[in-house]
Amino acid sequence: MKKLLLLPSILFVVFITLTVACSEDEDEICEQFVSPECSADITTCSGGDYGYYLYNEKEYYCEDEDCLDATRDVYIAAGCLDASGVLDINSQDYIQLRAISLKVIAEARAASGCN
C-alpha cells in the first residue's frame, strides 16, 4: 500500500517543482535594433512571452502576436512615422525588427526552460 501512495506523491512533487520553476521571474533577453530607414535606436526585449520595445527609456509592450500596435507606437515616438501614418509591414525596417523580436522571444523561452 505504501508503494501505491509513493508514486503519486513523487509525481506530485515533480509537477509542483516544474510549475514553480517555470513561473518564477525569467531573465530578460534584449537585442538592439538600429533602424536603417530612420536611424532610430530601438531595443527589443523579452522574458519569454510577447516582450516589448524600449526607446528613450520608455517601454512599448506587445499585446498581440504580431506586435503591430507597439511597433507603430515606438515608430511614432522615434519620429519614423507620423501619428496619422500607417505602418508598412512590408518595409525592410519592420521585417528586420520583427525578425529580431521573434529571435529574442525564442531565446528567452529557451533560456527559461519552460517551452
Automatic annotation (TrEMBL):
It comes from the Bacteria. Residues 1-23 form the signal peptide. Keywords: Signal. This is Lipoprotein. It comes from Plebeiibacterium marinum.
